[in-house]
Write a structure and sequence with these properties.
mainly alpha; Rhomboid-like fold; two-stranded antiparallel ribbon; 10 helices; 3% strand; globular; disordered N terminus
Length: 229
């Protein structure tokens, strides 16, 4: 009998849970990370929010650029994260299937970065007037990018608004984007948040329209990969 046949010398094997996690999609991991961050933030009394929320003062004047990323994984309450994760669960897989895992991860994060950047742009141009200390957080900007991309990939798929109003995915995207634009123009409630939604939507549109812009994520396969969904 060789030493590798002895029970005490064999390498430990992973359990079924860890084995299955190896095959999770990027979208599943994004949902898991968002939920884990939310739970940990609640346990610590909002410490993660203090470290990662976005504001003009912190991210721009304070040069804390990482907040363009961290804002995407913070939520203000159960309802906030619940609706965001439901939307990501339904629309994310379609976009990931078209772009592939690496491109999709970059797509998601860049849509979120664009949401913060558009928020800053409207503040800098006085289109929206608000305190630069005002916090911005949530995955909504990234998810608006995902929604717009999904609507371009499968515009005629029927979805249920509020679980009982059927409409085409393209119509849903236009309705939600229209509400965001109207709110910003009228400087209505949560105008800053809606501005972030528009920024994410613009980024999502550009990246799904010209997906070769994300080819740098698959550098080993070469920059010649070009396709359209």
């Amino acid at each position: 009998m060789g030493i590798y046949d002895r029970d005490y010398y064999r390498q430990p094997t992973r359990g079924p849970m860890f084995s299955s996690m190896r095959f999770w999609s990027v979208n599943s991991w994004l949902i898991a990370v968002n939920v884990a961050v939310f739970v940990l933030d609640q346990i610590t009394g909002g410490e993660l929010t203090l470290l990662g929320y976005f504001s003009v003062t912190k991210a721009i004047f304070g040069f804390e650029i990482w907040r363009f990323i961290t804002l995407q994984f913070l939520h203000v309450g159960v309802q906030h994260i619940l609706f965001n994760m439901i939307a990501l669960f339904f629309f994310g897989p379609l976009v990931e299937q078209v772009l592939g895992a690496r491109r999709y991860l970059a797509f998601y994060l860049l849509s979120g970065v664009a949401s913060g950047a558009f928020y800053v742009l409207l503040w800098a141009t006085n289109i929206l007037v608000y305190d630069p200390h005002t916090p911005l957080m949530g995955a909504s900007g990234s998810i608006f990018g995902v929604l717009i991309a999904a609507a371009m990939i499968a515009p005629n798929v029927t979805v249920m608004l509020d679980f009982f109003i059927p409409m085409k995915l393209r119509t849903l995207a236009w309705v939600l984007l229209g509400i965001a634009v109207f709110t910003v123009v009228r400087n209505g409630p949560n105008a800053g948040g809606e501005a972030a939604h528009i920024g994410g939507a613009i980024a999502g549109y550009c990246m799904i329209q010209f997906p070769w812009l994300l080819n740098w994520t698959n550098y080993r396969r070469g920059p010649w990969i070009r396709y359209r969904p």
